[in-house]
Amino acid sequence: MVSRRVTYLGYGACALAGCLWGTGFYFGRLALNEMSVEYMVLYRFLFASVGMLPIAFTQLVRLTRSEVGILLTSAAFGIPIQFLLQFHGLALTTVSHASLMVGAMPVLLAAAAAIFAGERLDWIGWAALGGSTVGAALIVLGGSRGPAGRDEPSLTGDLLVVASLVTALAWILLSKKLMQTHSPTVVTSYSILSGTIMLAVIVLGPWLVQPLFGNRTLGPPPLTQVSLTAWIALAISGLLCTATTTLLWNWGIHHVPASRAGVFLNIEPALGSWLGVRLLGEHLGPFAWVGGGLILTAAVILTTRGHQPEPEIILE
Fold first, then answer.
1. Of 39-48, 151-160, 165-174, 283-292, which has the strongest mean pLDDT?
2. Residue 293's closest CA among 143, 96, 134, 144?
3. Is 89:158 a contact under the CB 8 Å cutoff?
4. How many structural domains compose the chain?
5. Are 258 and 117 in contact (CB under 8 A)?
6. What contacts 254, CB < 8 A, 6 or more positions away?
7. What is the percent of the chain with per-residue pLDDT over 70, rounded to a whole number?
8. Dihedral of CA 111/116/122/125: which sign?
9. How far apart are CA 28 and CA 272, in angstroms?
10. Does 82 map to a domain?
11. Which residues, 6+ apart, have CB-to-CB distance to 132 below 8 Å?
12. How far apart are CA 18 and CA 13, in angstroms?
C-alpha cells in the first residue's frame, strides 16, 4: 500500500511539474519584452539558485570523480545549452510550431529510456504516449492566430527547439542515474547551481573581459531599467517554474519510470498553448478540446495500469 501511494505521489509530482512548466512561457514572455534571451534566462536561474542554496548547504554530500563528471555534464545540457537553444528557437519561430515540437518530448523520452535505460514499455504504453503527443498537437493547432500573431515559422527556429529537446533528454536520464545514489533534492540543487554558474560565465563573460581587449561595445546587464512587472515575472519563473518544478520532477521520476512520467511533459505545451491563446485573444476550437481529452486519457492509462519492475541500474 505504501509503495502504491508513493508511486501515485510520484506521478502527481510529475503532473504538477508539467503544469508549472507550462506557465513558464507566459512569465518568460513578460521578461523578454525588456531584455535579451541571454539575460532573461540568466536572471531566471539566479532566482532559482536562491531557492536551491538552503538545500545545497543543509544537504552536503561527497561526490565521486565520476559523479562530478555526470553532474557537470547533466547541468550543462539541462540549463545553459537547453534553455538558450529553446528560447532562441522560440524567438525565431511561431508559438504554435515551438509548442508542437515540445509536445513530441514524451515520445522521445520514452524511446531514450527504453534504449539507454532499459525501461520496458508495452504497445499500450506506446499508444498512450503517442495519443498524448497527438493531443498536444491538436491543442496547439486548435488555436487560431489573431492580428498580433503574424510571425512566420522558420526552419532554424524549429531545429533549435528540437535540439533543445535532445539536450533535455540527456539532462533527464543523467539526473536519474545520479538519483540512484543521491536524493532528488541534492541532485536538483547541485545541478541548478552548477548550471547557473556555467550560464553566468557564458552570458557575463564577454562583457567582463571586453575591457582587456580595449572593446566596450557590450553594454552592462539590464538592471535599473527593468520594470517591477518583469522582475516579478523573473522571480516567479525562477523560484516556481524552475526550482520548484525541477524538484518535483526529479522527485517524481525517482519513484516512477521516466518513460511513463514523460506523458506529463505534454501538460507543458498544452497549458502553455492555452495561456498563449488567452494572451493573444485567440480561442480554443474543437480540436483543442479533443486534444485535452487525449492527454488526460493517456495520463490515466499510464498511471493506473500495472507495470513490470524497473531495472536498478540506469545508463550503464
1. 39-48
2. 134
3. yes
4. 1
5. yes
6. 10, 176, 179, 184
7. 70
8. negative
9. 11
10. yes
11. 106, 263, 266, 294, 295, 298, 299
12. 9
Q: Which residue has the cell 548550471?
A: 195
Q: One-letter amino acid identity for 25?
A: F
Q: Which residue has the cell 519510470?
A: 257
Measured distance CA(235)–CA(46) in Å, rounded? 9
Distance between CA 117 and CA 310 in Å, rounded?
A: 9
**The amino acid at 282:** E
* Separation between Cα atoms, residue 158 and residue 92, nearest integer Å: 8
Distance CA 130, CA 145 (A): 26
Q: Could you tell me the pLDDT band of residue 308, with boundaries at 50, 70 and 90?
A: very low
CA dist 6 → 80, 254, 260 (Å) = 32, 10, 15
Domain limits for position 280:
2-304
Contacts of 89 (CB under 8 A, 6+ apart): 98, 156, 157, 158, 159, 160, 161, 163, 164
Residues near 201 by Cβ (< 8 Å), separated by ≥ 6?
none
Answer for the pair 260, 305: CB distance below 8 angstroms, yes or no: no
Amino acid type, 277? V
| Average pLDDT of the residues of the chain | 77
pTM attached to this predicted model: 0.75
CB 133, CB 104: distance < 8 Å: yes
Is residue 277 helix, strand or coil?
helix
Q: Beta partners for 143?
A: 284
Angle, to 10 degrees, between the axis of helix 65-76 and the axis of helix 184-209?
Answer: 60
Ramachandran area for residue 214 (φ above 0: left; ψ -120 to 50: alpha; else beta): left
Where does 117-239 have alpha helices with state H? 123-141, 155-178, 184-209, 228-238
Other CB atoms closer than 10 Å to residue 214's CB: what's the count? 6
